[in-house]
Amino acid sequence: MSLSFEGRVVLVTGAGGGLGREYALAFAERGASVVVNDLGADTKGGGKSSAAADKVVEEIRAKGGKAVANYDSVEDGEKLIQSALDAFGRIDLIQRVHLRGSFLVTRAAWNHMKNQKFGRIIMTASAAGIYGNFGQANYSAAKLGMLGLANTLAIEGRKYNVHCNTIAPVAGSRLTETVMPPDLVASLKPEYVAPLVLWLCHEQCQENGGLFEVAAGWIGKLRWERSQGRTVRQKNKPMTPEVVRDQWDKICDFTDATKPASVQESLQSIVTVLSQVESEGEVDANPTAAAASATSASGINPAEAVGQKLPPTTFNFTHTQCILYALGVGMSTKDPDHLRFLYEGHPDFSCLPTFGVIPSQAAMMDGGLSSVPGLNIDFTQVLHGEQYLELYRPLPTSGKLTSEATIADVLDKGSGAVILLDVNTYSGDELVSYNQFAVFVVGAGGFGGKRTSDKAKPSLPPPKRAPDAVVIDSTTRDQAALYRLSGDWNPLHIDPSFAAMGGFKAPILHGLCSFGFAARHVLKHFADNDPSRFKAIKVRFVKPVMPGQSLQTEMWKEGNRIHIQCKVTLFSSTQVKETDAVVLAGAYVDLHGASEASPESLTQGGGLQSELVFAEIGRRIKDLGSELVKKVNAVFGWEITKDGKSAAQWTIDLKNGSGSLHKGPCSGKVDVTFTVSDEDFMEVVQGKLNPQKAFFSGKLKVRGNIMLSQKLEVILKDYAKL
Questions:
Q1: Are strands 534-541 and 382-391 parallel, antiparallel or unpaired?
Q2: How are beta strands 93-96 and 561-572 bridged, if at all?
Q3: Is 642 helix (H, G, I), strand (E, B) or coil?
Q4: How far is Cα 500 from Cα 520, in angstroms, rounded to an integer?
Q5: Per-residue DSSP letters for 517-547?
Q6: Could you tell me the CA-to-CA distances from 395 to 104, 259, 436, 533 in Å, in that order?
Q7: Residue 666: HSE in the Cβ half-sphere, 13 Å Cα cutoff
Q8: What are phi and psi of 276, to 5 degrees?
Q9: Are 399 and 417 in contact (CB under 8 A)?
Q10: Alpha-carbon gap, residue 381 to 492, rounded angstroms
Q11: What is the pLDDT of residues 405-455, one digit of tens each?
């Protein structure tokens, strides 16, 4: 489906020639109303003429487009924006070239864009601004200044749907033709840049704060990269240039480099340094020699620590703890299948398999690691890196469990240390479960230890094919507050001020909570919620999840092993959007005698991705039902299929009373009924499948008043703001 800019108003500065002209023509060709701004100056900035802008306006109008010329300097930003408002009544998109003009024009348009809840701004930087160039000091400074301006506008405009991106193009123009060979200028056509600008300006594009180089049909995205760095001072001691000199190679080593994308991420390392210094952590000035010393700067001596046993811990529990844990990982009475884990009176009342991490975590939560010789570490810098859990029998729903923990290995990752903690949990003399915690200690590396271990339970990548099943599940704003009641009292998950010290905008969700979500998705979809089928799970924690975000669990079945990957899923108007924010990776669940979900569970709607969508539609109707009834005035029936068989039916009544949603067929008259598979339904909702194409290809079948299908957008609009 082609991108349209019908109804949008675009201001392009410097549009009398080169890139600006190409942008103006391209926007107009796709329906936009264009303000063609050009001062008409020569290549040295002198003179003034209306000819360039007028010529472009004539070209646009000759093709049936809408355009007006503007000859004001960008120093008069208010005049430029006013010309757009006078001619077309609004301003949507701005393409800008120079720093001061960019600031003035954007400032003039900013409130208009905020008020209409839409705007797209493109700043034009250059390679000279990004990398520097001989003889172009003023120009380079101004161009890089535009990137800083764009990044701040991207942050400030995000909540108003005003996005700002920066491009660094190379294209033949009046300016470049005087300094480049003719054959090179010919290959750097402006029309090879304009498509990127149009995409970044379109309402479908959610890119914000990006920097792109573009030329000759090639496009690449740039980002900052930072070395792990080195702490070169000690508490109550002077910092000297000699120490900086001695650590220079480490300071400039980009091995395991980080990629900070915000001020918060940048400051997080500073918080780490302050914590290290205040806890009197010493500089590791000579990493290779440190391996031979138990008093190394990292405070870690593997030879002393590995094999050490922690004090045993006991865990007494009743059905209450099992139920509380199930609620903490997102189970709800709204799903009948969850009742066996939430009601002690259920005939099949069971404990979720991943509850097995709870008895064992006391080894770390109770400060057991602090008693281990050779592990003199700062516990404020301990992060949970990976987790493995294996069950040898289904967990009891009450009783007394004893856990015994051992330091299995200690690894040197350079920027930090990894401690492998093996925990065996017993009921009496019977081994119930085995856990391996892999914890990462920030800043504790460099002691000369090994980087890998055959004792580590490996993470595994998923198959290189589409997943066999995908489940989207929402966490609540209180998910972390609820999960912590199972024993992880770290204030990082509840206290905003503590979270801010770690560089987070708000408290984050426990990694083991996301771990529990993913495991129960597998259990339901591939094991019919039978905990006796669960054998083991392995995950690697990649990024934090914020309470209230939604998790998308992707699952691949390979025999009795289910590979899984979890992403944070963002929601916007009428679309569920995947992001690249993978939060659980290299993960899998091993099952005993795994099989596909039963037809009965599908008939009840179990394992259907569409359930989340309808649940959110129901919440939307509850909040805005009367308003939607006025707009829509119709009853919709939905039949969701799976593998060619009917799996669920839904009725959306936006004609009677204040509206309603219920699962099942309508008892009265339905104005229009849609039949679609669960997979195709999600493709439509996610914007991956055009509804019209789905209809004409037979994937979406419609019975009744087909014209009412046009009102689907009203029903689905912003449905997924959880």
A1: antiparallel
A2: unpaired
A3: strand
A4: 31
A5: HHHHHHHHHHHTT-GGGEEEEEEEE-S---T
A6: 66, 42, 17, 12
A7: 21
A8: -65, -45
A9: no
A10: 12
A11: 999 999 998 888 999 999 999 999 889 999 999 998 888 888 888 888 989
Is residue 98 within 8 Å of 88, Cβ to Cβ? no
The DSSP call for residue 490 is -
3-state secondary structure of 39: coil
Q: How many C-beta atoms lie closer than 10 Å to residue 2's C-beta?
A: 4
Sheet holding 416-427, edge to edge: 313-317, 399-412, 416-427, 430-442, 382-391, 534-541, 575-591, 561-572, 550-558, 469-474
Question: 637, exposed or middle or buried, with CB in 10 Å at 0-12, 13-18, 19+?
Answer: buried
Rounded Cα distance between 623 and 625, Å, is 6
Q: Which of 72-81, 499-508, 541-550, 659-668 reaches the highest mean pLDDT?
A: 541-550
Token couple for 388: 């493995």
What's the number of CA atoms in the CB half-sphere (13 Å) around residue 462?
Answer: 24
Q: Is the distance from CB of 331 to CB of 341 less than 8 angstroms?
A: yes
**Closest CA relative to residue 76, chosen from 104, 99, 103:** 104
Q: DSSP strand E in 399-528: where?
A: 399-412, 416-427, 430-442, 469-474
* Residue 103 φ/ψ, nearest 5 degrees: -60, -45
Closest CA to 105 of 176, 31, 7, 39: 39
Q: 226-248: b or e for each residue (b if 16 or more CB lie within 10 Å)?
A: eebbbbbbbeeeeeeeebeeebe
CA angle (191 as vertex; 187, 193 as ends), nearest 5: 90
What CA–CA distance (Å, rounded) separates 699 from 678? 11
Extract the tokens encoding 480: 């972390």
Q: Which helix (H) or strand (E) holds 496?
A: helix 496-501
Residue with tokens 């589409």: 466
Number of H helices, E strands in the chain: 24, 23
Report the candidate in 577, 578, 583 with the shortest Cα–Cα distance to residue 517: 583
The three-state secondary structure class of 38 is: coil
- For 211, phi then psi, to 5°, come to -125, 125
The secondary element (H helix, E strand) that includes residue 113 is helix 99-116
309-341 pLDDT, tens per residue?
Answer: 998 999 999 999 999 999 999 999 988 889 999
Question: Two tokens at 235?
Answer: 């508490």
A 10 A CB-CB count for 501 gives 18
Q: Are 503 and 375 in contact (CB under 8 A)?
A: no
Helix (H, G, I), strand (E, B) or coil at 247: coil
Examine the residue annotation and report whether 139 is marked as an active-site residue of this protein. yes
How do the residues of the chain divide into helix, strand and coil, expressed in percent and rounded to 5?
A: 35, 25, 35
The active-site residue out of 139, 160, 343, 426 is: 139
Q: Is the pTM of this model over 0.90?
A: no
